[in-house]
Structure formats: structure tokens, C-alpha cells
């Protein structure tokens, strides 16, 4: 038995040595860095120019004026493992106009040689602004650019900060790829507009993460289910709205958490080196030990995941800019405005080594209130997680159906110069996963669906002043078959279908907004590996990205096979024609 993709990509994350066993050959493999070598493709490509890798996303709407651009970082990430993060002083650029309305971060990187996919984080004084995965280089070299709208972090950009970048890489005789990374901030002004006073952006953002001096980076590294890591914060007494933004990525034993079988299967088959705990995971957020919210994450497949040939040059959904998740925690302000310290904790249900999790607390402050802001939590319900597993297996073959549900709801009022506002929030989650093993577990099929619904309703004495709803739906299908490739080689044939669907609707007396995103990738192909290096193979990927909103539309359809574009079309047309 061999669950191959679980061994193909291990993102090197920490100091511990992992000994992963190829179960079919019962032979331990390790590299000079003490880990399983992965997926670099030893395919010579004919093109001479570096290939441009990209993730399909909608373009950022930019003001017409030229930006004022400041390059903050130019660094070569060679052997960075066990080394402190790169720290750079950030100062609001004095010669850029102060009233910017849009700030875009540009991450530009090149790499040549053979290398794993690596995880990286970018923080401003502990507030995370980007979680990203590096692309996997080829011998001829690759390049990629990530553009991210960071305007919502304006309150930080207005003051001096420490820019921190952590990217663990190992360079040796086999893994030769050094990542050359440049980070530039582009400030776009728009005279006469509200600039920093945009009500959508918090006035203060506090980090729930480790200090920038931490050698392993500012993210918390969650190692198991009981590992809750926290930070104590004292909130300013004039906060009237609070939102937690959570960043998460999963690695090593939990990189492919959605395909992990239950422990009973591992125990009965005497398997060693197979990651278990079943396929259900959730990030849980606590304030003073009380569960206030959860994130049931989108299963991002990194650029080396399942079959690295699927992700060239179109990378997996979310791989270059991992989604963050927002939880409205305004109802709890009544408990937090007492001037005392409160703990904000983060954990991962069923976690195996290792999850990188941290959060940003976005706060809106009232400058006008003459008396102190008061508030009270008036209701909070968090019935425990409902979950079930139905196992049906004999030896290595069989199936496991895992289901889970959760609901959290809270209400609280806050009285500020905006009046007395009651905020009601609800979070609902649904999970279903079916794992099937066939042919003595040489074939594994995973079918998973995660649906979440978040609602916020804000009421004043006069009635509802805001109503917002965010629905996400993440269906995932994956099958992989391992076949003997002959001559000491292994062949993996796999298909993946992954989709990120998100609908947002905001209704306020001043106007309403809605958006709908359907982003689907289908990939299929094979690869032949020898000693965990890819000898040959083929990957084909189709992606359909369809975004509609009251502020405009964007769609793109891309089809790539064997590194070659078969088709690529974009459209900014709203609505369907017949
Ligand atoms: C990569 O391919 C080249 C040319 O086919 C070969 O000489 C070399 O040994 C291969 N390297 C590895 C590590 O397989
Ligand atoms: C920014 O805009 C405000 C009004 O919104 C104005 O008072 C201020 O002078 C502007 N600052 C600069 C540097 O343009
Ligand atoms: C990164 O910045 C350096 C210094 O400004 C420049 O020489 C280099 O060409 C840049 N690299 C890329 C990939 O743009
Ligand atoms: C979970 O992880 C924490 C943090 O590393 C560790 O202290 C604790 O012993 C672990 N618990 C279990 C049950 O392994
Ligand atoms: C697992 O190990 C136990 C004890 O050595 C043995 O009795 C059992 O047959 C083994 N099961 C399998 C499926 O190999
Ligand atoms: C195995 O290697 C031999 C000798 O190099 C070659 O003749 C044969 O075609 C190879 N078989 C496969 C299946 O690649
Ligand atoms: C994977 O998809 C290919 C066609 O794209 C199909 O021929 C193959 O049967 C699929 N594999 C499985 C295990 O379903
Ligand atoms: C996304 O899919 C849903 C359900 O299939 C559909 O109602 C919605 O209109 C789609 N949105 C877009 C932008 O295609
Ligand atoms: C992929 O393209 C290369 C040329 O770039 C070609 O040599 C190879 O045969 C193709 N592979 C498949 C499976 O079509």
C-alpha cells in the first residue's frame, strides 16, 4: 500500500526530523535534510525563458493615477531553515501622497533549479498580510508575481512598522533552487476621496501571533488537538467594532488532511508512517477560553501537491494567496472594554503536526464619544461539534464516511457615539467526506464538501442598520492510483477537482453590495517517479473562474496541458447571454 501523494510533498517546516516510510517497499527514505525528498521534476523543457507561473484571480481595481512605489525587500532565500525571519524597517513613504485610497503589495520572485514548494508569510509588526506558497522551479527557471490589495491594513501602513518575511528553504547538492524575492508596495492616491477614513477599514489592527523576533516566524505552530496557542491583549476602551481575521496553512502530516484515514484503519493494518486522525479539521478561536468562532478551511493544494505537473504554469486555487477568514466578534466587546488583558487563543480540532495559524484583530475606534463606550454580551450559544464516522473496511480496502456540523451564535450591544447598536452573529458549518480505498489501497478516492454560512445583523432602536451574509462552498474530489512503473519506478495516475465558491451579500440603508465567485479547477494526469524524483509525466488542468458583483464582473477560462496553453479567455461582461 502506498498513499503516494502524502509522501510527494512535504513542506519543510520545523526542526523535527520526520522519517516517512514508503509503505509498499517498507524502506525508509531520507535526504541530507532528514526528510523525504519530493517532487522536483527532472524534465528538460525546451523553452529558454523562465516560465511565468500564475494563480487565476480577478484583477485589482486601481485608481487611474500612477502609483508611488517603494521596494521594501530584495532577498535571496537560500538555506534559511533555522534562521531568523528577514526583518526590514517600514516607514510610510514621505514622498508618496498621504491620502492613498489603494495600496497593493507586489511579491515578485524567481527561482531556478530543483526545489520543494515552500510556505512563506509576510507580516507588518506581527499582523499577517500574506500567506503564500512558492512555485516549484524548473531547470530553466521560473518567475511569478503576486499582487494583493492590502488597503484594509491602511492603519498600519500609516506608521513605521517592521516588515517580516519567513520562508524556510533548504539548499544542498540535490535541492539547488534559491528563491529571489522582491516585495514592493504601490500606493495609489485619489485626490478628494476619503483616503484613510474609509469606514470599511479598521482604525487599529492588533496581532495575535508570535513576536517578529521569533526564529520560526510569527505564526503559531499548532502540533496537536490539545495545543491551543494564545496571546493576551489589552483593547483600547473606545473600540465599537471588532473582527478577527484568521490565516491558516497545513503541512507535513496534515498537508492532505482531507485524505487522512481514521486511526482504527491504521491500527488494524499495522501501518506506520501513515497520517491519521481521520479527515475532519477545523480551526477554533477562543476569547478568554470561550469558543467564539471557527474556520473550516478551504483545502488549498500547494504547487507540489498530488502531482506537481498539474500546477504548471497555473497553480492551485489559493496557493499563491491563501484565503484568510473573518469572524465578527463585536458581541464580545462588552467583556473586552474593561482595560484588562484578555486572551485570544487558536487551536485546530484533530490536528496532526503541523498547522501554521495566526490572527489579526481589526478594531474600529470611536473618536467622538465623550463618555466611555459600554457594552454587554447578551447571548452566546456554542453547542458542541456534532460529528460521526462510519467505517466499513476489510484489510486495506473499504470506505469511511465522516460528517460534522457546528453552529455558533452570539449577540451583544455596544453604546458609542453611533448610538446603541445590537450585533447578532451566527456561524454555521457542514462537512461531509467519503474516503474509499481499493486494490489493496493502491487506489484512494476522496469526496469532500464543506459549506459555511456567516451572518451579521446590526440593529439600532430604529431597526436594522446592516445585514451581511457570507456563504462558502468548497467541494473537493480526488482520486489517485499507484501502479508499478517498471524498472524500479512508480507511476501515479490522479485526478483532482477543487472549487472555491463564495457568495457575499451586504444590505445597509446607505446601499447594498453582492458578489458571487465560482472558481473551479479540474486536473488530471500521471507521473513516473524514481527515488521520489519525477522522471516523466503529464498534467492537464482546466480552470473556470467566474465572478459577478454589483461593482463589476470578471471571468477567465484557462486550459493547460503539458506546460502548454490550449486556451485562455477572459471576459468582464456581467450577466449571461443566450
Ligand atoms: C536528470 O536528467 C538528466 C538528463 O536526462 C540526467 O542526466 C540526470 O541524471 C537526471 N537527474 C536525476 C537526479 O535524475
Ligand atoms: C487628505 O485629505 C484631507 C481631507 O480628506 C485633507 O484635509 C488633507 O489636507 C489631505 N492631505 C494631503 C496630504 O493631501
Ligand atoms: C529585484 O530587485 C532588485 C533590486 O532592485 C533588481 O535588481 C532585480 O531585478 C529585481 N528582481 C526581479 C525579479 O524583479
Ligand atoms: C500537544 O502539543 C503541545 C505543544 O507542543 C505539547 O506540549 C503537548 O504535549 C502535546 N500533546 C500531546 C497529547 O501530544
Ligand atoms: C498486526 O500485528 C498484530 C500483532 O503483531 C498481528 O497479530 C496482526 O495479524 C497484524 N495485522 C495485520 C493486518 O498485519
Ligand atoms: C527498463 O530498462 C531497460 C534497460 O534500461 C529498458 O530496455 C526497458 O525498456 C525499461 N523498461 C521500462 C518499462 O521502462
Ligand atoms: C481520471 O480521469 C481520466 C480522464 O481524465 C479517466 O480516464 C480516469 O478514469 C480517471 N481516474 C479515475 C480513477 O477515475
Ligand atoms: C455560482 O454557482 C451558483 C450555484 O451553482 C450560482 O447560483 C451562481 O450564479 C454562480 N455564480 C457565478 C458568478 O457564476
Ligand atoms: C510534452 O511536451 C514535450 C515537448 O515540450 C514533449 O516532448 C512530450 O512528449 C510531451 N508529453 C506528452 C505526454 O505529450
Automatic annotation (TrEMBL):
Signal peptide range in chain numbering: 1-19
Protein name: Peptide N-acetyl-beta-D-glucosaminyl asparaginase amidase A N-terminal domain-containing protein
Species of origin: Picea sitchensis
InterPro entries found in the cross-reference section: PNGase_A, PNGaseA_N
Keyword tags: Signal
Residue span, Peptide N-acetyl-beta-D-glucosaminyl asparaginase amidase A N-terminal domain: 65-371
Amino acid at each position: 500500500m502506498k498513499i503516494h501523494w502524502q509522501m510527494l510533498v512535504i513542506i519543510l517546516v520545523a526542526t523535527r526530523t520526520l522519517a516517512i516510510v514508503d509503505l509498499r517497499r517498507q524502506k525508509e527514505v531520507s535526504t541530507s535534510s532528514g526528510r523525504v525528498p519530493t517532487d522536483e521534476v527532472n524534465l528538460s523543457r525546451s523553452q529558454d525563458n523562465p516560465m511565468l507561473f500564475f494563480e487565476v484571480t480577478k484583477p485589482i481595481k486601481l485608481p487611474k493615477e500612477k502609483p508611488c512605489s517603494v521596494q521594501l525587500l530584495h532577498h535571496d532565500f537560500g538555506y534559511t531553515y533555522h534562521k531568523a525571519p528577514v526583518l526590514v524597517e517600514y516607514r510610510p513613504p514621505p514622498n508618496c501622497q498621504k491620502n492613498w485610497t489603494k495600496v497593493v503589495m507586489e511579491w515578485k520572485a524567481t527561482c531556478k533549479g530543483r526545489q520543494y514548494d515552500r510556505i512563506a508569510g509576510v507580516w507588518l509588526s506581527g499582523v499577517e498580510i500574506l500567506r503564500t506558497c512558492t512555485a516549484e522551479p524548473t531547470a530553466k527557471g521560473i518567475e511569478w508575481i503576486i499582487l494583493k490589495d492590502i488597503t484594509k491594513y491602511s492603519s498600519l501602513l500609516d506608521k513605521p512598522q517592521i516588515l517580516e518575511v519567513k520562508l524556510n528553504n533548504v539548499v544542498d547538492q540535490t535541492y539547488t533552487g534559491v528563491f529571489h524575492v522582491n516585495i514592493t508596495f504601490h500606493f495609489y492616491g485619489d485626490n478628494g476621496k476619503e483616503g484613510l477614513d474609509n469606514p470599511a477599514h479598521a482604525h487599529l489592527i492588533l496581532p495575535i501571533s508570535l513576536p517578529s523576533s521569533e526564529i520560526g516566524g510569527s505564526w503559531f505552530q499548532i502540533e496537536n488537538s490539545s495545543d491551543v496557542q494564545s496571546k493576551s491583549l489589552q483593547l483600547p476602551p473606545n473600540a465599537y467594532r471588532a473582527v478577527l481575521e484568521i490565516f491558516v496553512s497545513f503541512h507535513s502530516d496534515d498537508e492532505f488532511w482531507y485524505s487522512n484515514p481514521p486511526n482504527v484503519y491504521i491500527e488494524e493494518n499495522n501501518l506506520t508512517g501513515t497520517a491519521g486522525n481521520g479527515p475532519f479539521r477545523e480551526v477554533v478561536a477562543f476569547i478568554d477560553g470561550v469558543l467564539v468562532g471557527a474556520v473550516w478551511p478551504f483545502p488549498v493544494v500547494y504547487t507540489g501537491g498530488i502531482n506537481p505537473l498539474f500546477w504548471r504554469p497555473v497553480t492551485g486555487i489559493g496557493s499563491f494567496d491563501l484565503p484568510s477568514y473573518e469572524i465578527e466578534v463585536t458581541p464580545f466587546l462588552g467583556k473586552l472594554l474593561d482595560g484588562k488583558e484578555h486572551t485570544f487563543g487558536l487551536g485546530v480540532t484533530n490536528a496532526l503536526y503541523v498547522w501554521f495559524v495566526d490572527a489579526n484583530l481589526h478594531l474600529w475606534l470611536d473618536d467622538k464619544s465623550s463618555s466611555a463606550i459600554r457594552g454587554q454580551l447578551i447571548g452566546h450559544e456554542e453547542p458542541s461539534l456534532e460529528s460521526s464516522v462510519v467505517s466499513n473496511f476489510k484489510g486495506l480496502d473499504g470506505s469511511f464516511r465522516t460528517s460534522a456540523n457546528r453552529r455558533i451564535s452570539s449577540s451583544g450591544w455596544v453604546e458609542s457615539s453611533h448610538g446603541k447598536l445590537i450585533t447578532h452573529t451566527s456561524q454555521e458549518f457542514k462537512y461531509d467526506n467519503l474516503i474509499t480505498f481499493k486494490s489493496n489501497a493502491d487506489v484512494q478516492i476522496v469526496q469532500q464538501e464543506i459549506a459555511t454560512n456567516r451572518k451579521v445583523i446590526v440593529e439600532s432602536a430604529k431597526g436594522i442598520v446592516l445585514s451581511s451574509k457570507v456563504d462558502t462552498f468548497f467541494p473537493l474530489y480526488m482520486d489517485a492510483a499507484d501502479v508499478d512503473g517498471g524498472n524500479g519506478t512508480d507511476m501515479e495516475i490522479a485526478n483532482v477537482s477543487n472549487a472555491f465558491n463564495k457568495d457575499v451579500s451586504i444590505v445597509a440603508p446607505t446601499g447594498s453590495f453582492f458578489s458571487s465567485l465560482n472558481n473551479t479547477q479540474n486536473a488530471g494526469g500521471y507521473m513516473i517517479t524514481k527515488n521520489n524524483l519525477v522522471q516523466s509525466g503529464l498534467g492537464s488542468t482546466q480552470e473556470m473562474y467566474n465572478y459577478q458583483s454589483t461593482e463589476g464582473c470578471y471571468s477567465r477560462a484557462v486550459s493547460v496541458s503539458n506546460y502548454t496553453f490550449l486556451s485562455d479567455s477572459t471576459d468582464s461582461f456581467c450577466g449571461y447571454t443566450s
